[in-house]
Design a protein that fits this description.
The protein folds into two domains: about 230 residues, 3-Layer(aba) Sandwich (Aspartate Aminotransferase, domain 2), CATH 3.40.640; about 120 residues, Aspartate Aminotransferase, domain 1, CATH 3.90.1150.10. Helix content is about 40%, strand content about 15%. The chain has eleven helices and 15 strands. A seven-stranded mixed sheet has the order 1-9-8-5-4-2-3, sandwiched between helices. A hairpin with a 2-residue loop joins strand 6 and strand 7. Helix 2 runs parallel beside helix 7. It is globular and about 65 Å long. Bound molecules: pyridoxal-5'-phosphate. The site of pyridoxal-5'-phosphate (PLP) has 14 residues, from helix 3 and helix 4. The site of pyridoxal-5'-phosphate has 14 residues, from helix 3 and helix 4.
């Protein structure tokens, strides 16, 4: 069996460091926020090249706080994409704002900047691009439009720790950037976790208060806040893992290059290509299939796990029926939902496993 990702292999590789960090927190008594979380914030801000980082309990909370700090609320509209995890859209709904979709472009499956201006209204307040699979969206074009219309750009960087666009780190290109530390993400906690990064001092101050009950000081609640705090144990674990993130990213990029060179000329699948001005961190290695059902069958027959990201675009989810969309509204996202398939990808993946995956995928080219 080749798994889609292997969290146990990662733990085994760094077990002594993780165990030490956890035991130290247990002894410290700092179970919520505390010194380890504060150090993680500084180190993650440095990693993202921003002035501030605010640790929270999930990536979804990070998105919610970033929107609130940008002043988004009921009656506002936030532009995002339908080809994403549901949390992007849910976070917009939490604020009372309305998600407004624009389609993705076919090469990177990230927000198509040429479609943004057509959906801007007097109620539009922000644009939330998603750095899908670990590759950043076309940020210069998105920022230029945002600037022209006075909109905030909030990056959903939940899949893009350490990704770059023209040499700039994910999270540092918009007014703020949101990360998830869900276990399967490129930097993953042993539980839930998230982070917002920003270089805007005002936004940072607001988010710091909002994550901890809107307190300016203990029991002085200056705004209606939330309990979005990060656990001390997760902070300590994430500090250990952050030290390994660059090496893990290099390994992911090598695996992706190996897959892509082996798929060159394939009639079964076409890999998504890395853009010349970007550093893709391959949270997900996705291919476009000629006949996805056939590829799924041969992978299953060979005991190879895979994922679909995402089989139903957000505008066609039952949960968002109130937005009134129907099939055909966002054809590029809808085609991706039918054609894209995600292959095993994690730093510990072996060359031998990659070869097995490729041969299973290619089998379909002759069978079908
Ligand atoms: C994982 C993810 C989130 C949500 O993160 P959680 O930590 O699970 O709340 C949001 N957006 C995208 C694109 C994601 O992949």
């Amino acid at each position: 069996m080749i798994p889609f990702l292997d969290l146990k292999a990662q733990y085994a590789a760094i077990k002594p460091e993780i165990d030490r960090a956890v035991l130290d927190v247990l002894a410290s008594g700092q179970y919520v926020l505390g010194d380890e979380v504060a150090r993680l914030e500084q180190e993650f801000a440095d990693y993202c090249e921003t002035r501030h980082a605010i640790a929270v309990n999930t990536g979804t909370s990070a998105l919610h706080l970033a929107l609130l700090a940008a002043g988004i609320g009921p009656g506002d509209e936030v532009i995002t994409v339908p080809l994403t995890f549901v949390a992007t859209v849910s976070a917009i709904c939490y604020t009372g704002a309305r998600p407004v979709f624009v389609d993705v472009e076919p090469v990177t499956l990230t927000m198509d900047p040429s479609r943004i201006e057509a959906v801007i209204t007097p109620r539009t307040k922000a644009i939330m691009p998603v750095h899908l699979y670990g590759q950043m969206a076309e940020m210069d074009a998105i920022n230029a439009i945002a600037e022209r219309h006075g909109l905030a750009v909030i990056e959903d960087a939940c899949q893009a720790h350490g990704a770059e666009y023209k040499g700039r780190r994910a999270g540092s290109v918009g007014v703020s950037g949101c990360f998830s530390f869900y276990p399967g993400k490129n930097l993953g906690a042993c539980g839930e976790g998230g982070m917002v990064v920003t270089s805007n001092d005002e936004h940072a101050k607001t988010m710091r208060m909002l994550r901890d009950w809107g307190q300016e000081q203990r029991y002085h609640h200056v705004m209606k806040g939330f309990n979005y705090r990060m656990d001390g144990i997760q902070g300590a674990i994430l500090r250990v893992k952050l030290r390994h993130l660059e090496a893990w990213t290099r390994a992911r990029r090598e695996h992706a290059a190996r897959y892509s060179s082996m798929f060159a000329g394939s009639t079964a699948v076409r890999p998504l290509v890395e853009q010349a001005d970007r550093r893709h961190v391959y949270h997900i290695y996705a291919v476009r299939c000629r006949d996805r059902a056939a590829v799924q069958r041969s992978l299953q027959a060979d005991g190879i796990q895979f994922g679909l990201h995402y089989p139903i675009p957000a505008h066609l989810q039952k949960a968002h029926a109130d937005l009134g969309h129907r099939v055909g509204d966002f054809p590029v996202s809808e085609a991706a939902a039918h054609e894209m398939l995600s292959l095993p990808m994690y730093p510990e993946l072996s060359a031998k496993a990659i070869a097995r995956v490729v041969s299973a995928v290619e089998q379909d080219a002759y069978v079908g």
